Amino acid sequence: MSKMLFTDDEQHYRPRVNQYENGSKFCVDDEVYVTSGGRGLLGPYIVARVVMDSLPVKYELSHGDGSSVDDGKEFDENELEAA
Questions:
Q1: Do 74 and 51 touch, CB atoms closer than 8 A?
Q2: How far is residue 50's CA from residue 52's CA, in Å, rounded to a whole number?
Q3: Tell me: the pLDDT tens digits for 21-58?
Q4: Taking the chain, what is the end-to-end CA distance rounded to the nearest angstrom?
Q5: Rounded Cα distance, 28 and 70, in Å
Q6: What CA–CA distance (Å, rounded) separates 42 from 55?
Q7: How far apart are CA 49 and CA 28, in angstroms?
Q8: Domains of the chain from N-terminus onward
């Protein structure tokens, strides 16, 4: 994942894009589907929280009305697909 990073590049003094190895695929307020094995996709849900202190990155999801999905369960990134 690429993120814009504004730094004082010693030679050029301009913004640049740095590559982060452990970035998250989704951000808060993104709409996602949960993959459910052979049953297809569940959702769409909204990313309510990104848990970056775990690997793989985990996500807490909410319904459109703001209520938690599965009592606040944290889903692995590989369980989600962009809506």
A1: yes
A2: 6
A3: 557 899 999 999 999 777 789 999 999 999 988 778 89
A4: 18
A5: 18
A6: 23
A7: 6
A8: 24-82 (2.30.30)
